[in-house]
Amino acid sequence: MEHVISKYTDEGGRDFYYILKTRKNVKKLVIHFTAFFGDWGDRKEYKENYQGYFHRLKMLGFQKDFNTLFLCDQFGFSKNGTYYTGEHGDFFVERAMLKIIKRTIGELQISSGDIITIGSSMGATAALKFGLLFDVKGIISISPHIDLDICAEKQGRFDHVAFICPDGNPMSVDNYIYTRQVNRLLDNWDRGRKLPVLFMHSCEDDYGVHSEQVLPIVTRWKFLGGTEYSDFRLVGGHGSDYCTKAVILDVIDRIFNDRKIQPKKYLSFKYLPDKEKLEKYRVVRKSIILLLEKLHLLNLARNARSYFLAKLKKD
């Protein structure tokens, strides 16, 4: 099915691409922010024709229970993202995202209480930031980059974060306005306002992210009175496969319908990645075959025993 790519051009002549998938008479909106789109996107043959890569388009673009806005950020150091901020101290990407989101909300005539933001890594940075800015119903944050100075140092994103800062120094405390936007929003959060429901997926072996960024933000969210659900895994790294389509759709449904999220059930077979399901199928199949072989041998042994006993009686 062909997806219509829309374009917004800002005052500086910069083009921003997005996809809006609408459903008739549906007043719910999921806003998905794309992550860094990988090393393949840095190759010349892709860059020359690049109009924006939309992560999870197949997963979320055909759902009937909500509208979906897919956003991407193709600016920055490698034209691969600025954490939805901008370049050299100019927040032009953020301004464009605000315009596109506000326009979409106006077109669909929905309230912020009917919006969920979602993203992974850099996309999760944006899901958190814009989720707070628009006071949305819920935020789905998967392996998020939150404090960008830490990401610069420990996640191999030094050049990307440096490109955001006016002086090119991502480690400077003076640049927290650029590198610690999510925590700055929480610094100024009115305790009388209810925080969005937060679903956090993260893996303990995600160096530079889980212990350094995820755990502190979860603690802070709860301290501010927010509702937070943690789906933490021992292994999976930064590109975790465990936040599957089944998990994400269940979380979206529960947030929209004011139902408690149950992270423990996401450990069950239904929510596993396809490759693990296949492996479990193989193990079960192998066990069944071995069992059948044993039963067959047992049957043969019993038949042989009966034969020799009968023969002994005759003799």
UniProtKB/TrEMBL annotation:
Record-given protein name: Alpha/beta hydrolase family protein
Source organism (scientific name): Leptospira fainei serovar Hurstbridge str. BUT 6
Phylogenetic classification of the source organism: Bacteria, Pseudomonadati, Spirochaetota, Spirochaetia, Leptospirales
